[in-house]
Amino acid sequence: MDVHVADHPLIAHKLTYLRDKRTDSPTFRRLAEELVTLLAYEATRDVRVEPFDIETPVAPTTGIKLSNPKPIIVPILRAGLGMLDGMVKLLPSAEVGFLGMIRNEETLEVSTYANRLPDDLTGRQVFILDPMLATGGTLVMAIDYLTSKGARDITAVCLLAAPEGIKHLEDELSESNIPVKVVLGTIDEKLNEKGYIVPGLGDAGDRLYGVV
Predict the structure, then answer these.
(1) 169: which of 19, 120, 136, 162 fits an S-S bond (Cβ 3.0–4.6 Å)?
(2) Residues 6+ apart with CB under 8 A from 140
(3) What is the pLDDT at residue 205?
(4) Which residues, in sequence order, are bridge partners of residue 153?
(5) Radius of gyration of the chain, Cα coordinates, nearest whole angstrom
(6) Residue 91 · residue 44 · CB < 8 Å
(7) Is the CA virtual torsion 100, 159, 198, 17 positive or negative?
(8) Are 195 and 16 in contact (CB under 8 A)?
(9) Distance of CA 171 to the CA centre of its chain
């Protein structure tokens, strides 16, 4: 597993305001979108491309375009939806699938309640969007599900991570030959007894969309 922390002052700046409990939901959504676009530059560094012949107003030349099959972006519902627009801005031709996953706040166990994905992901580059890598359970289950559909090139994009979640993910993937890249805004201090990242930013879904 390749873990990449995007070290950039603009990322740190936006994360500061995301963390602030005074930041309202509309501002939080805008900042999350902007932050994901910055992280997407790192996440898509190895996106597959192929030569593409064009003519400029001056002369013919060869550029590049995204290869087929197109990459697929998979936000983890519901909080991952707040990251989707920022990723699509950078990969507008990508397809979008969805995974609905929820964590039991008492047992911290993760279950899947919805999915909208192709039956076969063979040959597709898959980008998972999930704001928080906390215990790691959600990402482990999502990656297992995607690999069961043939995915062999997976990148996860998260705003924050806890060391415990990274360790859990590494342990679960240690015997797999499937390359997984994790792109993070930062790594925080720890998890608390409730499984929340410290200092973190609270519940990303509630911060994005309100408590329901």
Answers:
(1) 136
(2) 110, 168, 169, 172, 173
(3) 85
(4) 125
(5) 18
(6) yes
(7) negative
(8) no
(9) 19
Alpha-carbon distance of 126 to 191, in angstroms, equals 27
- Residues pairing with 74 in the sheet: 128
pLDDT at 3 over 70: yes
Handedness of CA 201, 13, 2, 208 (dihedral sign): positive
Three-state secondary-structure class, residue 198: strand
Identity of the residue numbered 119: D
Strand-pairing partners, residue 73, are 96, 127
Please state, in angstroms and rounded to a whole number, the distance separating the CA atoms of residues 114 and 98: 8
Three-state SS sequence of 181-195: EEEEEEECCEECCCC
Maximum distance among all alpha carbons in the chain?
65
| Strand, coil or helix: 94 | coil
Q: Indicate the SS3 state at residue 66.
A: strand
167: which 2 tokens? 């360790």
Six token digits for residue 32: 């999350």
- Over the stretch 75-91, which tens digit does the pLDDT of each residue have? 998 888 889 999 999 99
Q: Tell me what pLDDT residue 110 has.
A: 66
